[in-house]
Amino acid sequence: MGLLSLAIWIPIAFGVLLLALGNDRHAGVVRATALIGAIVSFLVTLPLISGFDKRSAALQFVEKQPWIDRFNVFYHLGVDGLSVWFVLLTAFITVIVVISAWQVITDRVAQYMGAFLILSGLMVGVFCAADGLLFYVFFEATLIPMYLIIGMWGGARRVYAAFKFFLYTFAGSLLMLVALIYLYFKSGGSFDIQTWHKLPLPMPAQALLFFAFFAAFSVKVPMWPVHTWLPDAHVEAPTGGSVVLAAIMLKLGAYGFLRFSMPIAPDASREYAWLIITLSLIAVIYIGLVALVQKDMKKLVAYSSIAHMGFVTLGFFIFNDLGVAGGIVQMISHGFVSGAMFLCIGVLYDRVHSREIADYGGVVNRMPKFTAFVVLFAMANCGLPGTAGFVGEWMVILGAVRYNFWIAALAATALISGAAYTLWMVKRVYFGEIANDHVKAMVDINGREFLMLLLLAVAILWMGLHPQPFTDVMQVSVTELLRHVAISKLN
User: Fold this and answer.
1) Are strands 60-68 and 73-79 parallel, antiparallel or unpaired?
2) Is 170:140 a contact under the CB 8 Å cutoff?
3) Fewest CB atoms within 10 Å of the CB: 227, 260, 328, 419?
């Protein structure tokens, strides 16, 4: 096995092992095994960055073995500058999720931890797959553990939220399967994604493929107006489910635009860029206003995620290096920041069992250490310079200025609305006098909670103060993608 296979199958193997243990009488062993599996999985991904050739846009750490000979399907893995950071992000967030559930989950612990580890391996598989059918298998398989996580450990309306999540995302993917089968026959019987990038497709075919991929990826991002499943899923999911959903699963859709829509249907991508830009601006502006009126903290951060992901799709479809690289940086930073925001809501929920903003007030008086972390994460969510939340948004806005000043001006309004709903929530929940007896009884974070928040705080500050390691890795791949799209347009 190569590094990519290890990154995929180690967490899955540990997840299956936990399911085999499957007994709450051995909860301590289960938790320790889950943590070991998550840490080992993360350590395996580190050589992907240290050994990555930043001068090459080709796939690296490639593995290719026959899988289904009859249909010329390969177990084909590889990463480039567009995907490698998401492998590390997935493994890192999995470690955080295991730590966050250490004392909180007391029922069916093995199944809970096992589901997250299996989900982690499947999501890594999405970012590594270089074969179209393999990508589709991983892409769809991620639905199963997340469906179970929401449906088994979620809130009062968990079954409704789980079904809505599954149906929306699965229905959108059916058209993508049709597109993959068309490309298979069009390429002479190959599922190789790199081969598909070179197909000279006529504009009508490109348009159909573009909208087939759009159906799958727009739901996953999610873009307006197919976003309605996300707030329900976030509100009902357990804390770990919300963290993984926001930090990683939303990125699968955005990554699909980079890997499939833009390189396979470049002319259609340019032709219908106005549609993506319009929907992205609606997400950035309108959904930001929707977040302002939320009374539930999880719903507020869920709508915030939709608005922030609007920056990602906007950056991709303005077709310049700052925009595309900024969109990728925004995906990574949003993984850190949104994960941290949902973890903080989880810390409060563990103590008061409420997500309603009105049930809090003056938390800083009882939890000063925790509030310090919250303020940092809130500033990152607002896009404060020096934090990870600033870098991607600023790059996208600069790229948008090159493309069209008024589009950039509209996108920049998100910095105002983002600050408004985030700081308003922080003010009402954390500052002022102690509001009630529930808040008065709260105690500050323990060592486990401090550790998981510290890890995310370090990541957010590191990326905000020194983003160059992230941008250097992706730059050549971004340039090559844009060159491919531009050449196709000229031809």
Assistant:
1) antiparallel
2) yes
3) 419
